[in-house]
Amino acid sequence: MKVAFVHDWLTGMRGGENALEALCERFPDAELFTLVHVRSSISAAIERLRTHTSFVQRLPRVKRYYRHYLPLFPTAIEQFSFDRFDLVVSVSHCCAKSIVHPGRIRHICYCLTPMRYAWDQFDAYFGPDRVGRAGSGLMRPVMARLARWDRDTADRVDRYVAISHYVAGRIRRYYNREATVVYPPVNTEFFHPDGATPERFALVVSALVPYKRIDLAIAACRLAGVPLKIAGDGPEREALQRDAGPGVLFLGRRSNDEIRDLYRRAAVTLLPGEEDFGIVPLEAQACGRPVVALGRGGALETVRPGETGVLVAEAVPQAFAAAIAQAIDRPFDSRAIRRHAEQFSRARFADQMTAVIHETCREAGAPAVGDAPAVW
């Protein structure tokens, strides 16, 4: 049985790519179908796959400015052919779910989220403060058209699998479809405690973009009198640095080894924005350290109040400052925090996704997947 896996684009190792990497271990003979593939930006396990890209790959300066070609993505994703496959599994946060496939085969979508910028976060990506008033005005009808296409192609998927119950709700709201929930993988073998004594600073690990609410973390740490270290980069860095003041250290992009060391040494890791799932809190918890997170979205499913961290009811500096002080003063059990994170391991993810694939095959009357070639 031949299985096809599809990914939006591959330009770095994030949540979707980590899920892909975990599944590569179950389907080592896979092929890869993606709109854009930036060589050496992803893990060796993914790079080993036979890769097929779309015409977008050949457009000018695509490796850096691939998002500028967003209006072309629907056409590009629909041009892939899956005639020789028996099952399609897409990993989608943009358009991978909308591939066109023969009616005889099944299509499972591992949905990271319905595309945020087309549905409910337009201003965070294309608002006047991001691309200027003229640019925002031009993008609004483009994104409205993309949202209609996204909705109209939702039934090309036979079975949705969501990364969280929060995303399952978004799938229900925007696509009018139900979804099974399989949480993304956390590399609990790499992220683990080392017995280091925590230091008195808070940590943020994040892309520096508006919806991540790094400004809220900065303001809260200022009120709490707690130093803040920020690992990550993005378009908001200059503005955040300008307003941060003393006590905030911008570290830029850091290696996985450096991020792990920061998790281990931080008194608390912060998640000030509303996330679809949020892998950072679980990486910190895998290192035995508590988390302070906004009590919305995926954090409600990954942080246990009083046991592995503190959930904040309001996205205001005063509430976050009080939670930071509480988390630093509270004697959390690092072993209990670690045990909680272990429930989100890579092996658990791969087992559950493999079970979904086998179940879908049985329901369709298709043969078992086994070790057949796969396409991502």
Question: Could you characterize the architecture of this molecule?
Answer:
The chain has 376 residues and is of the alpha/beta class. It folds into two domains: 3-112 and 153-185 and 345-375, 3-Layer(aba) Sandwich (Rossmann fold), CATH 3.40.50; 199-342, Glycogen Phosphorylase B (Rossmann fold, 3-Layer(aba) Sandwich), CATH 3.40.50. It is built from 16 helices and 14 strands. Strands 1, 2, 3, 4, 5, 6, 7 and 14 form an eight-stranded parallel beta sheet that branches. Helix 9 (214-224) links the parallel strand 8 and strand 9. The protein is globular and about 60 Å long. The mean pLDDT is 91.
Please sum up the structure shown:
With 376 residues, the chain is an alpha/beta fold. 40% of the residues lie in helices and 17% in strands.
What's the SSE blueprint?
Layout: E1 3-7, H1 15-24, E2 31-34, H2 44-47, E3 50-53, H3 62-65, H4 73-78, E4 87-92, E5 106-111, H5 116-119, H6 122-126, H7 128-152, E6 159-162, H8 165-175, E7 179-181, E8 199-205, H9 214-224, E9 228-231, H10 237-244, E10 248-252, H11 256-265, E11 266-271, H12 279-286, E12 291-294, H13 299-302, E13 309-312, H14 317-329, H15 334-342, H16 346-363, E14 374-375
Parallel strand pairs: 1-2, 1-4, 1-14, 2-3, 4-5, 5-6, 6-7, 8-9, 8-11, 9-10, 11-12, 12-13
Strand proportion: 15-25%
Shape: globular
Structural class: alpha/beta
| Total of domains | 2
What percent of residues adopt helix (DSSP H or I)? 25-40%
Sequence of secondary-structure elements: EHEHEHHEEHHHEHEEHEHEHEHEHEHHHE
CATH topology of the largest domain: Rossmann fold
CATH class of the largest domain: Alpha Beta
| Number of discrete helical segments | 16
**Total beta strands:** 14
Give the overall pLDDT as a whole number. Answer: 91
Radius of gyration: 21 Å
The biggest beta sheet is recorded as: 8 strands, parallel
Tell me which CATH architecture of the largest domain applies here. Answer: 3-Layer(aba) Sandwich
For the termini, the CA-CA separation is 15 Å
Give the low-confidence spans.
none
